[in-house]
Design goal:
This protein is α/β, with parallel strands linked by helices. Helix content is about 35%, strand content about 25%. It has 3 domains: about 10-140, Alpha-D-Glucose-1,6-Bisphosphate, Chain A, domain 3 (3-Layer(aba) Sandwich); about 145-340, Alpha-D-Glucose-1,6-Bisphosphate, subunit A, domain 3 (Alpha-D-Glucose-1,6-Bisphosphate, Chain A, domain 3), CATH 3.40.120.10; about 345-429, TATA-Binding Protein. The chain has 13 helices and 19 strands. A 6-stranded mixed beta sheet has the order 1-5-4-2-3-6, with helices on both faces.
């Protein structure tokens, strides 16, 4: 049984997930002596947290409960611990939950670490510590303030701008509005009660942010900020109420940081390579971006889904720091003008429900690509465009991304690929 996906363990909340959480605590406790635990706002978070804490305590670990907070906030706090455990399903629907394991540098557990931990989780011989070795748990109440204080060091000037923030009733509710107010912003907070009952689909994509876009237009704000459930992602709406694509936002943030070396994923726009950075590409997933930054260095990393990694803070995607950086940008120029100055090619992204059949790559060869890359899924390269087809690591979906120099060519690549994928799934069922 494979427990870990590309971003930790995620699944529908049920008894089995509670049992997994208990065993994760026991397994982490086999190698760590001091662990900090936090949750996003999901209603199942408290139950899972108690299971994890029970496992840690049974293993003889000194554990600390950081409460409800974003993943990047817990990651920043983990520098004082052997490991961090975040109870979150990130951008998945509210009926899901999961566990993300964090290293002291803020990065997620590597594939090697996950495999070793999974072997322990599934090992029936895993034992509790002796009663003489058991420790107690304690509250860790300073994580949010510590994270804000560190971010504010980079933004000492007051930014007197109007900003709309949609926290989605997720973990950003406990930090982003307050952080921006302390930066001097006039904040209009939407869905900032940390209830875990998401008012719209929590993934910060354009289709889910119509309320934010409308609020920016009607309020005259200089921008809008959106987070996912655990706030490791941040996406932007400009002063005209337009959703800013992740590819453009990647270039915008990298330029604001004056980054020379940028790490991004294989599905990011080819326009990133044309923006003047030294670009290194990884498989899709923020874990891969963080691993590459740790291995080869770099001033900034991210992927178009909204995960932005600032190595000077930590190797965890930090939607909170990204929100502060965006506010600093918006205080200096019109976001819409900056966005329009960044060339971008037509790009289409979408999903097909189902599991990838074994012969999918062979079926895709009917499109007659000029070359093929198997770095992550199948990337078909054509003259003036490309198509990437890959299985999701978190959901039973096949993700498609197509980019080309013209809208018609991008649409044709995407639609042809989608048709082939659907036919392959149907033929394999």
């Amino acid at each position: 049984m494979r427990l870990f996906g590309t971003s930790g363990i995620r699944r529908l909340f049920d008894r089995e997930l509670v049992e997994i959480a208990l065993r994760v605590g026991l397994a982490v406790g086999a190698n760590c002596r001091k662990v900090v635990v936090g949750t996003d706002t999901r209603t199942s978070g408290a139950a899972l947290k108690q299971a994890v804490l029970s496992g840690l305590l049974a293993a003889g670990v000194g554990c600390y409960d950081a409460g409800v907070l974003p993943t990047p906030t817990l990651a920043f706090a983990t520098c004082n611990f052997d490991a961090g455990i975040m109870l979150t399903a990130s951008h998945n629907p509210p009926e899901y939950n999961g566990l993300k394991l964090l290293n002291p540098d803020g990065s997620s557990y590597t594939l090697e670490q996950q495999e070793k931990l999974e072997a322990l989780i599934l090992d029936d011989s895993l034992k509790a510590a002796s009663w003489t070795e058991l420790k107690s748990s304690a509250c860790y109440e300073g994580a949010v303030e510590e994270h804000m204080t560190r971010i504010l060091q980079d933004f000492p000037e007051k930014r007197k701008i109007k900003v709309v923030v949609d926290c989605g009733c997720g973990a950003a509710s406990v930090i982003t509005p307050c952080l921006l107010e302390r930066m001097g912003c006039n904040v209009i907070a939407l869905n900032s009660q940390p209830s875990g009952f998401f008012p719209h689909d929590i993934e910060p994509v354009e289709a889910n942010l119509t309320g934010l876009m409308k609020a920016v237009r009607e309020s005259g704000a200089v921008m809008g900020i959106a987070h996912d459930g655990d706030a490791d992602r941040m996406m932007l709406v400009d002063d005209k109420g337009r959703f800013v694509s992740g590819d453009r936002l990647l270039v915008m943030l990298a330029r604001a940081l004056k980054a020379r070396d940028v790490v991004t994923t294989i599905d990011a726009s080819m326009a990133v390579d044309e923006a003047g950075f030294a670009v290194r590409r990884t498989v899709v997933g923020d874990t891969a971006v963080s691993e590459e930054l740790r291995r080869g260095g770099g001033g900034f990393g991210g992927e178009p889904s909204g995960a932005w990694v600032f190595p000077e803070i930590s190797l965890c995607p930090d939607g909170i720091y990204a929100a502060a950086r965006a506010a600093a940008i918006a205080s200096q120029c019109k976001v819409s003008e900056l966005v329009d100055s960044i060339p971008i090619y037509p790009i289409k992204r979408g999903n097909v429900a189902g599991k990838a059949p074994a012969d999918l790559a062979t079926c895709l060869m009917a499109m007659s690509p000029l070359s093929v890359s198997n770095t992550d899924g199948v990337k078909l390269n054509f003259k003036d465009g490309w198509l990437l087809v890959r299985a999701s690591g978190t959901e039973p979906k096949i993700r498609l991304t197509a980019e080309a120099k013209t809208e018609a060519w991008a649409s044709r690549l995407y639609e042809t690929g989608e048709k082939i994928v659907k036919s392959a799934i149907k033929g394999g069922s």
